[in-house]
Amino acid sequence: MDFAFSEEQKIIGASLRDFATQELLPRYSHWDRTGQFPAEIWKKMGAMGLFGMRVPTTYGGQDFDCVTAGLAIEETARGDFNVCYGILNCCFAGDLLSKHAGEAVKATWLPPMVAGEKVICVCLTEPQGGSDAASIRTRAERQGDHYILNGEKSAVTLLMAGHAGIVFAKTDPTAGARGVSAFLVPFDTPGITRHPYSDMGSKGIVRGSMFLNDVRVPVANLIGPENGAFSRVMQTFEYTRGLIGLMCIGAAQVTLEETITYTKNRIAFGQPITKNQGVSFPVAEWHARLTMARWQCFRTLWLRDQGLPHNSEAAICKGFVPEMCVGAIQECMVLHGHYGWTQDLPIEQRLRDVAGQIIADGTPQIQKLIIARELFGREFV
Ligand SMILES: Cc1cc2nc3c(=O)[nH]c(=O)nc-3n(C[C@H](O)[C@H](O)[C@H](O)COP(=O)(O)OP(=O)(O)OC[C@H]3O[C@@H](n4cnc5c(N)ncnc54)[C@H](O)[C@@H]3O)c2cc1C
């Protein structure tokens, strides 16, 4: 076993920590208060290579391994949790498109996505249910050299800033998960309308709903074989769940460090409040939990890099780590007293932002279902 990061990974991690601290953190709350999309930061992140980590070099990416992508997302989340949705989406789209899309789609969409000039969204969830992803109702019917798409997609991250979506639709409505296909759909295609949500957190990367009304998509935009999208997307989610865990840990870890500094300097009853075990022990406990969680996430990504199974490992990352991180941030808020409740500190915003990841990409219940299926066997659960 080797738990060490390479010299290159250490350099990447250190430079991203500086970027997060000096450039992202000072403006983290700005995007929350204004609800604006951080367009300039996006371009800068593109120039730094943060959107190309899982994209082959032929399309402008760096083709990094998953562990390096995990390190990058954790460090970036210390400054701004929400811009990490860009990294996450690009890892997802980068992997899925580079492995399964046609050459024209890859050449058209991957380089500008990597540069931070185009945003590609993931459009799977629908209003009647997201957990039961195979039950989607959006239809894609073949007409000559086009598919005609009709339906509604909901909860789409970055929708209002997006330029295209990876849209999942039924090409065989009688075949359940085996009747799902994926398409690269540019958002300026006639028949698409988009509507923003007003969310509790992550306000600058506005989610929303998309309606597709007789949207014509060329056959060349099919990603993977017809009716073959479901297993491919689920395999991609497996490793992005490790990234989500690290994204949440980055936000929780920096909050814990801020709390250590604050509590050492806060005097009550004539001494630093850290002299009370009621203050120091929760910090020690969250440090222990975050440390365990971090290694679980990196191990999951390492398994992916080795081509080894990591389905339930990824479900552990997604099912338990975001909730744990929200718990850590909430405890840190209490340890800051009333200051923790103000909007002068980033803690309350992190609490709201990180909470969204408990639900996104499969709730804790769905992750437990995945773990239980592996433990008991599918037929017993
Ligand atoms: C911040 C955020 C970002 C998101 N980004 C995207 C995105 O970019 N693209 C996209 O397509 N979607 C996105 N989503 C949607 C997300 O994937 C879904 O919300 C999620 O999968 C749950 O689906 P649902 O909301 O329809 O809840 P439902 O499926 O209706 O579930 C409701 C509740 O019932 C529980 N439940 C359902 N079935 C079971 C079961 N069998 N056993 C036990 N409990 C069960 C669930 O755990 C949940 O608590 C995002 C969501 C959030 C919050």
Average residue pLDDT: 96
Q: The CATH topology of the largest domain is what?
A: Butyryl-CoA Dehydrogenase, subunit A, domain 3
Total beta strands: 10
- Secondary-structure element order, as H and E? HHHHHHEEEEEEEEHEEHHHH
- Helical content, roughly? 40-55%
Question: How would you describe what is shown here?
Answer:
- It contains eleven helices and ten strands.
- With 381 residues, the protein is of the alpha+beta class.
- The chain has three domains: 7-118, Butyryl-Coa Dehydrogenase, subunit A, domain 1; 121-226, Butyryl-CoA Dehydrogenase, subunit A, domain 2 (Beta Barrel); 230-380, Up-down Bundle (Butyryl-CoA Dehydrogenase, subunit A, domain 3).
- Strands 1-4-5-8 form a four-stranded mixed beta sheet. A four-stranded antiparallel beta sheet has the order 2-3-7-6, with no helix packed on it.
- The radius of gyration is 21 Å and the shape is globular.
- The chain binds flavin-adenine dinucleotide.
- Flavin-adenine dinucleotide binds at residues 121-125, 129-131, 155-157, 202, 207, 356, 359-363, 365-366, 369.
